[in-house]
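User: For a benchmark we're assembling, each entry needs the component sequences followed by a predicted structure for the full assembly. Here are entry 17's components. Please fill in the structure.
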Amino acid sequence: MTVKNKPSISFHMDVSDFLPAEESEKQSVDIMRESVSFWKGGFQRLVRNKLAMASLTVIILVMILSFIVPAFYPYSYEQQIRGSENLNIMEYSEAELARIEAGEKVFPHILGTDSLGRDMAIRIMMGSRISLLVGIVASAIILFIGSTYGAIAGYFGGKVDLIMMRIVDAIYTIPDILIIILLSVTLKHPLKSLAENVPGFSWIDTVGVGLISIFIVFSLLYWVGMARIVRGQILSLKEQEFVTAAKALGASHTRIIKDHLLTNCIGTLIVTTTLQIPSSIFTESFLSFLGLGVNAPMPSLGSLAAQAIGGMKSYPHRLLAPAIAISLIILSFNLLGDGLRDAFDPRLKN
Amino acid sequence: MSKLLLDIKNLRLSFFTPAGEVKAINDISLQMNEGDVLGIVGESGSGKSVTAYSIMGLVPFPGRIIDGTIDFNGHRINDMTEAELRQIRGNEVSIIFQDPMTSLNPVYTIGNQIREVILLHTDMNKEQANKRALELLTLVGINEPEKRLKQYPHELSGGMRQRVMIAIALACEPKLLIADEPTTALDVTIQAQIMELMMELKEKINMSIIMITHDLGIVANMCEKIVVMYGGKIVEAGTSDEIFYNPKHEYTKGLLRSIPKINAKKHEKLIPIEGTPVDMLNPPAGCPFAPRCDKCMKICLREMPEFTQVSESHKCACWLLQKEAFLASAGGEG
Amino acid sequence: MERVAKKDQKYQEPKEGALIEIQHLKQYFPVSDGLFSRKYVKAVDDVSFYIKKGETLGLVGESGCGKTTTGRSILRLYEPTDGKIFYDGVDITHVDMLPYRRKMQIVFQDPYASLNPRMTVADIVGEPIDIHKLAHSKKERSERIMEMLERVGLNSEHANRYPHEFSGGQRQRIGIARALAVDPEFIVCDEPVSALDVSIQAQIVNMFEELQEEMGLTYLFIAHDLSVVKHISDRIGVMYLGKLVELADSYELTFHSVHPYTKSLISAIPVPDPKTSREQKRIILEGDVPSPLNPPTGCRFRTRCPYADELCAADEPEFKEVSNGHFAACHHLDKVK
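Assistant: Structure for entry 17:
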């Protein structure tokens, strides 16, 4: 073999360069990149999303205000202060002014008081707590029932799927408000006697029949959307080869559904649940507005809004405050849900 | 003396992805004359498909040519605008892709799709275009062409769809046909039909072909000239006989040793190429094949080798070939 | 009464020394054709063969021939429509498969789809160990996992990573490690190298051969690339549209095939050797593979066969022995060149 060209030496070379390379030198080129798991990668993407982060901050703030601050607040939600009715924002009643002059420190009514002398600020905070609790608990119920149901229907397919989904279709047609009203009317007396007669059930009184009816209805009716979504995911996932591989290994149905199918749905589950929360909160606010929610004196953002309608012209802040609170909470959860979807949606990964 | 049809000089093309720069084509030069059948052999990540797409200016965002020139049939491709490129695509240069299922539009009839390219680049009216479409279908060996024109892609088999792709590609009698793994998705008996068809057509309309594939059997069968790519570089180029019977690059040699041969008389041990394909986000500094090469030297990891001209038509980029010359010159001066 | 007796006569005693045997295996998939009519895709239509212990039987054919379905039916990933499957002489067609899942495993074609993207490599290889309770402590479990990884050329550094971080060849190794974790006797290799780069294929093929020697494995090697199949198999079966058309020793089949389809299949393979290619006489078949929903009557290959006549349309040829260990189904073997 004749070499026609001499190497053009544009960089420094010497004889030692032509010695065989060590294994270690070759290996160093072959290092693997840093391991990025599904969660870490998604989380990194989420953090980069400014809108989602802002929403998360708002949610955290609201949680602090609803759960932590009331413990330190000088007023409680049911406390009716005589003489302090219908105070405006930061207004003091005559009795309070007198006390201030006497040297006492009186915490201002940041949002005024209502017609019964109850501090609005603490009521809004408690109302937010109820809304958040309802939203989160209801969504958890929906997640659990819906995903199990959908996973079973999707996995087994055939007749099982057919029957289960027809039941879902039937449930979709049921008017939810009607059922809530019916339930809260029919359950009122049985639950009340339960609260009075059986120890350990007294919380029913505080929470109220209305709220319990809401939870029951959520458990009976609202999980169907989640079931459909999960079923769809499972249907496409179960055709994947790694599911066949699991079957070939001898995996049981439970193992396949749990470890292979649902784990690959987690992104969807988180996103759907996060978007379900504002929907539940809205439903609860709406129902409380109609008077079907929590019992007085327990406030809910919806019931606060309802109470404020009468005095809308004179005390607009009584309507604005809960309305803004509801809007802020719902908007933040929606934006966070969108951010989560963008961060964890496998289709957007390249 | 054949006319020069394609002249690529020092082409560099990178994809600027969020994860980093992928140097898909890292300084390649190749030439092709009219009437040649050139085979570009390589694996995933070698840059073979991107090279073909860049000839037609089809490299998608975020890919960008960062250096070098592409001259095709008198056009400077990398300087042309999108409108100018559209004039020559389908007209002077055509491409057929690997997957005939997805390359045809499922909502238009076959006739519609063939007529489209004819109407775009010629002055024929619809009737004339239809006649030409019928001719083309017959040319590519599809039976009952009148019936086929009215059918939709999903009604045809894989082999037939690929023939339709070829018909569309040939509609304006291009000077160059680029075939990007056209038979990989087809059964082997259908593959044989398509290969035979392509060779027949090349004779009939004097077309040049670039055949992009990873299958050494196909290039041995169809191509007179072969270019071997690895990690975005051309590692060896030569005639078919030279590459198969006198391979100089360790990668080429490795490929030939590692494929099982159907006509082997007894069981031969396959000698695989160790290691994993190059990570294009993090390519090595020197020769891209160095980490997998048995005969890797220290310089191979550091510096990109230059081409050694083994014969007039055969060149290879490897430090092993430069070693003797260098040592000789170094020794002589010392 | 007569009918029942005839049915029993179809099946024979399982062959001595055969680890796997299928007799008259049928796998039909229902496809609804409109609201009331039901059609069947006869993916596997009366296929019989056996595989001896320690042997590799290759199964080749083009798309729609039923080779992958056959492999999966043997593992009862599909429930056979008819026929019998024998494992080491035992009829396993209707038994509970869990204990047999330890002995019979499968490696899949697509290294990207056959691994759960959310599981680490250690979990993927550990799953079969957990299912069959092969480890009695956490330590034992991770030792076994490491052993498997090393066997396929990976190392402990890879155990906690996810599939998407690996190349195709490495993922295939993970799939093989998973199959080996239960210490099986028989593995169905379902196109295990088709989706890999050429330079990696040889690595994996060699690994299959080494593992077979070390562990005494029996393989059913399914592929469409006859070159690879010939290299690794002792005997090869050729399938066409759900039927076995020829079965013989690898070299016998490659150089002395008798069935027209096998001959054209072999001649269609482009040889990576320019001189031989130029001299090669190609038998180019006309037309496309018919749809498995509507296979031709009689011999299924007759629509593309240069030797077909009325007999081929009327009668299905019998799969019989033409010389020692060499079987074929064709009416006109004497005419075929």
